[in-house]
Amino acid sequence: MNTITGYTGLYGIVANPIKHSFSPMMHNTAFQYLGIDDVYLAFEVKKEDFSQFITSARILPIKGFNVSMPYKVDILPYLDELTPEAKLCHAVNTVKNINGKLIGHISDGIGFVKACQEKGWHLLQQKVVILGAGGACRAIVVALAQYVSEIIIYNRSQKEWVQELNQQLTCPITLKSLSDLESLKKDLQESYLLIQTTNVGMAPDEDECLIKDDTYLPEHLKVADIIYHPQQTKLLKMAQKRGLDFMNGEGMILYQGAESFKFWTNQEMPIEQVKKSLKME
């Protein structure tokens, strides 16, 4: 274990709630393994205290911090600069403090792509279907657009950001209604990858699934659900029953953390050591 001294730097994660997060274990394992004199803490901050947290982060100074729900969008007015990915996503999950200047980045989408690559999934020029159009979907779309040929999003409501991204990215993005099951089934037949980005499948909806039954999942399809608790949602159980290659959200969480770590330290996170610490092997 590292010894905390007067020179030890501070990182953290701000959200509400946040005590369940395994980000502190992830980053502290990496700091210790690499011999970096820094520590990482969880900051559970109420909405009415959030602006004071940002002031404190500048003053202390906290060298960098992750941002989780409900502050990924709320933090934007407090930042001095955004990376291109954060600008496209209109959201931030990673902040670096350079002499009081706060720079916002988003690593969720990059984390998802790296998890796919670790699985050996070949994304180049593939058609992808995504369920849900929330913040996680937008981050994944921005990252995937560099690789895939087409993205179809199925959602219950319209989202203006889809048209906005179509004007800024070369990969065509189409938004369709989740109620159009015939179109969904056809698109899945032609797709390489299905990504589930909603909360459906988490407590208290563990027995729910946006896919009607496993006949929607053709034998060539890869299936990803960004939920990691439970480890297997109803969708992933369907995929397993069909003999498909699938993954939950653990890899995305791991690699978005690794991307944040690199953004702060310019060093690669020691993935294997972190996996052992998180019991992901």
UniProtKB/TrEMBL annotation:
EC number: 1.1.1.25
InterPro entries named in the record: Aminoacid_DH-like_N_sf, NAD(P)-bd_dom_sf, SDH_C, Shikimate_DH, Shikimate_DH-bd_N, Shikimate_DH_fam, Shikm_DH/Glu-tRNA_Rdtase
Record-listed NADP(+) binding positions: 132-136, 226, 249
Major enzyme class: oxidoreductase
Sequence ranges assigned to domain Shikimate dehydrogenase substrate binding N-terminal in this UniProt record: 13-95
Gene3D superfamilies assigned: Leucine Dehydrogenase, chain A, domain 1 (3.40.50.10860), NAD(P)-binding Rossmann-like Domain (3.40.50.720)
Ranges for domain Quinate/shikimate 5-dehydrogenase/glutamyl-tRNA reductase: 122-196
Pathway: Metabolic intermediate biosynthesis; chorismate biosynthesis; chorismate from D-erythrose 4-phosphate and phosphoenolpyruvate: step 4/7
Reaction catalyzed: shikimate + NADP(+) = 3-dehydroshikimate + NADPH + H(+)
Keywords: Amino-acid biosynthesis, Aromatic amino acid biosynthesis, NADP, Oxidoreductase
GO-annotated biological processes: amino acid biosynthetic process; aromatic amino acid family biosynthetic process; chorismate biosynthetic process; shikimate metabolic process
GO MF annotation: an example: NADP binding
Active-site residue numbers: 72 (proton acceptor)
Domain SDH C-terminal: 249-279
Domain of life, source organism: Bacteria
Annotated residues for binding of shikimate: 21-23, 68, 93, 108, 228, 256
Subunit structure: Homodimer.
NCBIfam families on file: aroE
Similarity comment: Belongs to the shikimate dehydrogenase family.
Known role: Involved in the biosynthesis of the chorismate, which leads to the biosynthesis of aromatic amino acids. Catalyzes the reversible NADPH linked reduction of 3-dehydroshikimate (DHSA) to yield shikimate (SA).
Name recorded for this polypeptide: Shikimate dehydrogenase (NADP(+))
Organism: Massilimicrobiota timonensis
Lineage of the organism: Bacteria, Bacillati, Bacillota, Erysipelotrichia, Erysipelotrichales
